[in-house]
Design goal:
single chain, alpha+beta, Aldehyde Ferredoxin Oxidoreductase,  A, domain 1, Aldehyde Ferredoxin Oxidoreductase Protein, subunit A, domain 2, 6-stranded mixed sheet, about 40% helix, binds iron/sulfur cluster
C-alpha cells in the first residue's frame, strides 16, 4: 500500500493537531468501505471532506484540505518518477455565486506531498483561523505529528519566507504565500520550496490558481512547513515483475510521449505548436498570432536562443521530463519561463520582450500572485484603456511591471484589478472583453477551441478539463456537438484523475493508461479502464454536486464573447449545454440531480448534500 488511510486534523483556533483515519470517517458517514475514487486520492478524495465537513458555502476560510494521491511519493520508495503532486482543495474566493463560493483546487509540485506522506498521513485538513499571521510547522519525525505556530511577518516576500522556514526553522519543505494574499488580492497564490539533491534548492513552484493564497491568509497562514521520516512512508513491497513495470513506465516518461515538454518546456513546446496553427492568443485574446507575426519573435524561445538567451533545464526532483526552463535575464534576474505566464504576461499584454516578461513573472512570484490571472487582468485593463483612448495600453513595459506591484499592494487602479477580471469589469464596464469563466481568468489557449471551459471545475482553466487544444488542427470537428460530448466526458474524467492520483499533468499520457496496473500494484485493488474512467467522472460529478448546492447552474456555464468569433455561436452553445446536461443526467438548469448521483454510484452524497 502507498497510502496510510490517515489524515491530520488541525484546528488553528484551538492550536490542536490530531491524526485520524479517513477510512473510518468515510465508513461512519457513508456506511461503506473506501471506493476506487477515494483510494486514488487527491481532489477525488478531498471532495468527501467538503461534502461531509463543510457546512457553509458562505465562508471560504473554514476548511482547507491538502490531499495526496496514491502515487504521490519518491522513486526511492518504489514509485514511478514524476509523481510528486499533492492537491490543495478549497472553496474559491474567485468562484462566487452571490455570497456563496464554489469548489476549486490547486496542484502543488516539488516535494510537499512526499513529505506529508512521510509524516504517516495522506491528507491534512486545516480548520479555523490562527490568532495572528503564522508559519504552521508540522514535525512528523517523532511518534505522532507535533505542531508549532510561529508568528510571521505577513508582508514578507515569498522567497524570503521560504528561505527563513528552511534556514531558521529547518523545514526544507514548505509552502508560503506572499504579501498579496494578506492584502486581500483575489488571485493570490501559494508557492512551494523545491529541495533538490545535494541540499540545493530549485526555483519555487506555484500552486497558483483560484485564490488559494487568499484562502490561506484568511486563516492567518503565512506558511506551512512539513517534515517527516522515510520510515513512516507507506512503502509498497514490489516483486521483480512490478519493478520491471515501474522501469518501463520511467522509460516512457523519458520517451516520445513527453518530448514536447522535455525538449521545449511548456514555453517552447506550446509556441512551436500554436504558432504554425496561427493560434497563439495575444492582446487580451483579441488576436491569434502565427509564425509570420514578427513581434512574437521577442518571446519565441527558439528565436530568443538564436539571439543568445541561455536556457537551462530544471526538474522537480527526480523527474526525467525537466519541463522547468531556467533563464537568466540581461539584468541578472534568474527565473523560469513557463508557457502560461509568457502567454498572459507577455503576448496578452502586448509586451514581447523576454527580459521584461521574465522580470514580470519573477515579481508575481515574489509578491505571491497568480501570474496567469495577473497577466489577464492587466491585458484586460490595457484593452479597456485602448477603447477609452487612455493610457497605459498594450506594449507598455513600464506599466506592466508597475501594475504588478500596484495589484500586490492594492494601490490605485491595482485595487480594482486585484478583484480579478470579473470584479474589475463589473466595476468599470467592458465585461464583453473580460476573458474569464466562473471568475477565473483564461489560460493561454484560443477560447474558440475549447467550449469545455464552460463546464470545467475551476473556470477558464485548461487543467480542469482536458479538452484544450484538441480542436486546434481539427476545424472540421469544432461544430460537431456529438464529438464534443464524448470529448467533454473523457476530458472531465482525465482531468479529475490527473488532479487526484499524485502524478504530474505532463506525465498524463504515460500514467493514465497505466492506472489500473498501478492501482493493483500499490493498493491491491483490481480495476479496469472503465472503472478508472468512471471514478474520474465521479470526481467531476461530485464537484458539480457541491457547486449545485452552492447555487451554481446553467447561467454560470458560460464562455466569453471572444469564444464565439470563429463560427460557433451562443445559440450553438445552448444546444451543447442541453446535450451535455442530458448526457450527464443533470437537470435542464445544469444542476446535478439525485438521479445523476445514483447512476454514477454516489447515492450517499445525494442524502448528505440534500440534493
Ligand atoms: S514535468 Fe515538470 S512540473 Fe512535472 S514533475 Fe517534471 S519538472 Fe516538475
Amino acid at each position: 500500500m502507498t497510502i496510510s488511510g490517515n489524515f491530520l486534523e488541525i484546528e488553528l483556533g484551538k492550536e490542536t493537531v490530531e491524526i485520524k483515519s479517513w477510512e473510518e470517517l468515510f465508513e461512519e458517514h457513508l456506511g461503506r468501505k473506501k471506493s476506487v475514487r477515494e483510494l486514488i486520492g487527491g481532489f477525488g478524495r478531498g471532495l468527501n471532506y467538503f461534502a461531509l465537513l463543510q457546512n457553509t458555502y458562505d465562508d471560504f476560510s473554514k476548511l482547507f484540505a491538502i490531499c495526496t494521491g496514491f502515487l504521490t511519493g519518491h522513486p526511492h520508495f518504489g514509485l514511478p518518477m514524476t509523481c510528486c503532486k499533492a492537491t490543495m482543495i478549497f472553496l474559491s474566493p474567485m468562484k462566487r455565486k452571490g455570497r456563496r463560493h464554489g469548489i476549486s483546487f490547486a496542484n502543488a509540485g516539488a516535494n510537499f506531498g512526499n513529505e506529508v506522506k512521510k509524516m504517516g498521513v495522506d491528507d491534512i485538513l486545516i480548520f479555523g483561523k490562527a490568532k495572528q499571521p503564522v508559519a504552521v510547522l508540522l514535525d512528523g519525525t517523532g511518534k505522532g505529528v507535533e505542531m508549532e505556530l510561529r508568528e510571521f511577518d505577513p508582508d514578507a516576500l515569498v522567497f524570503d519566507t521560504l528561505e527563513s522556514i528552511a534556514n531558521e526553522y529547518n523545514y526544507a519543505t514548505a509552502c508560503a504565500v506572499g504579501p498579496a494574499a494578506f492584502k486581500g488580492v483575489k488571485f493570490a497564490s501559494a508557492h512551494f520550496s523545491t529541495p533538490l539533491p545535494g541540499k540545493k534548492f530549485g526555483l519555487p513552484r506555484a500552486a497558483a490558481r483560484g485564490g488559494i493564497g487568499l484562502v490561506l491568509s484568511a486563516k492567518n497562514i503565512k506558511a506551512i512547513g512539513v517534515k517527516g521520516i522515510d520510515e513512516k512512508f507507506p512503502k509498497p513491497r514490489l516483486g521483480e515483475e512490478e519493478k520491471r513495470i515501474v522501469k518501463e513506465i520511467n522509460r516512457g516518461l523519458a520517451g516520445a510521449a513527453t518530448e514536447k515538454y522535455r525538449c521545449g518546456g511548456t514555453w517552447g513546446g506550446n509556441f512551436d505548436f500554436l504558432l504554425p496553427a496561427k493560434a497563439l492568443p495575444a492582446y487580451n485574446h483579441s488576436k491569434l498570432l502565427g509564425e509570420e507575426a514578427e513581434e512574437v519573435y521577442g518571446l519565441w524561445r527558439m528565436k530568443c536562443e538564436e539571439k543568445g538567451l541561455k536556457v537551462e533545464d530544471e526538474e522537480c526532483s527526480p523527474c526525467p521530463i525537466k519541463c522547468v526552463k531556467r533563464v537568466k535575464g540581461s539584468d541578472g534576474t534568474i527565473w523560469r519561463l513557463d508557457y502560461e505566464p509568457v502567454a498572459l504576461m507577455g503576448c496578452d499584454t502586448g509586451v514581447f520582450d523576454v527580459d521584461v516578461v521574465l522580470k514580470a513573472f519573477w515579481l508575481a512570484n515574489a509578491y505571491g500572485l497568480d501570474a496567469v490571472s495577473t497577466g489577464s487582468a492587466i491585458a484586460w485593463y490595457f484593452e479597456y484603456n485602448l477603447r477609452m483612448g487612455k493610457s497605459p495600453t498594450f506594449g507598455d513595459t513600464h506599466a506592466l511591471l508597475d501594475l504588478i506591484k500596484k495589484i500586490a499592494v492594492r494601490e490605485g487602479i491595482g485595487d480594482v484589478l486585484a478583484e480579478g477580471v470579473k470584479g474589475a469589469s463589473e466595476k468599470l464596464g467592458d465585461e464583453d472583453i473580460a476573458m474569464q469563466v466562473k471568475g477565473l481568468e483564461t489560460a493561454g489557449y484560443p477560447a474558440w477551441s475549447n467550449p469545455g471551459y464552460a463546464f470545467a471545475v475551476r473556470g477558464m482553466c485548461h487543467t480542469s478539463m482536458e479538452t484544450y487544444n484538441v480542436a486546434i488542427g481539427r476545424p472540421d470537428k469544432v461544430h460537431e456537438i456529438e464529438w464534443w460530448i464524448s470529448t467533454l466526458k473523457k476530458g472531465a474524467s482525465d482531468a479529475m484523475l490527473v488532479q487526484s492520483g499524485g502524478f504530474c499533468h505532463f506525465a498524463r499520457k504515460v500514467i493514465l493508461p497505466a492506472l489500473p496496473t498501478l492501482l493493483d500494484m500499490y493498493t491491491g485493488v483490481k480495476t479496469d479502464e472503465d472503472e478508472i474512467e468512471r471514478s474520474g467522472l465521479q470526481t467531476y460529478l461530485l464537484s458539480r454536486a457541491i457547486d449545485t448546492v452552492a447555487g451554481f447552474d446553467r447561467t454560470d456555464d458560460t464562455l466569453p464573447e471572444r469564444a464565439f468569433r470563429c463560427g460557433t455561436t451562443r445559440e450553438w452553445m445552448e444546444r451543447l449545454k442541453d446535450r451535455f446536461y442530458e448526457e450527464m443526467d443533470f437537470d435542464s438548469k445544469g444542476r446535478a440531480t439525485k438521479e445523476t448521483l445514483i447512476k454514477y454510484g454516489l447515492s450517499e452524497f445525494a442524502y448528505l448534500l440534500r440534493i
